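The record is kept unedited without comment:

——
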Amino acid sequence: MKASIKIGYLAAIVGLFLMVAPKAAMANKYMSLKEAIKYFLPEGSKLSKVSKTIPDDKFEATKKRFRLKKSTDFKEKISKGPYTIYVGRDAGGSAKMYILMLDQYWRTCYHKYAIGIEPNGTVKEVVVVDLNCKFAYPINRKSFLKQFKGKNASNRSKAPVEVGKDIDAVSGATASSDATAIVTRRALALFELFFASK
């Protein structure tokens, strides 16, 4: 009898803990890959998938232009690829949206984003797909993410998107704000290299 009471009491404590404990170790998944792609596609679009690799002779110049460098906190993870890019096309076959799924690691945190870029090189929107850091959750607010809409680095203009310059960080999530800016710069770099320069 006493053993069953102890087991019941223990189960109740565990259940209560799971209800109120912070999700520090669990990833907060906001969208599946399919949902993220569908989110950006204009109605009636046809989806295609392309694979691109940064040429050896363009790699260092791309990193320099978009300030994609390694630091203590952020491992840029800018590799030569291959990168999978989803392209939404209209009935006539013209590209209407480029969707890049990119991730960012820093310390013990993991962030994953979907970045929609229009054919003119303008960011339509940055969407958070996955987070595993409880301190990073505020970056999923519309008030923060709307700052990335309209960013553009076509025509060899000065690369935008930097916290403290044209992006305001979220209080309490400064590093994650910076991670979002880094990912957006990387998306613009890849778009410019693979599509805008054609």
